[in-house]
Amino acid sequence: MSESTELLRYRDVRDRLVLDRDTTETLGRLTRLGIDPQKHQIESLTCRSGWLGRRRQTFAWSQLAGMGEDGLQIDRSPDKAAERSPEQLYGLIGSELWTDAGDRIGWLTDYWFRPQTGAIARYLYAARSSRDHYLLDPVGVSSAGNQRVIVLTSAIERATPWQEEAPGGLARLSRFWQRARTRPQQETASEGNSPTPTSPADLS
Question: Does the pTM exceed 0.90?
Answer without folding.
Answer: no
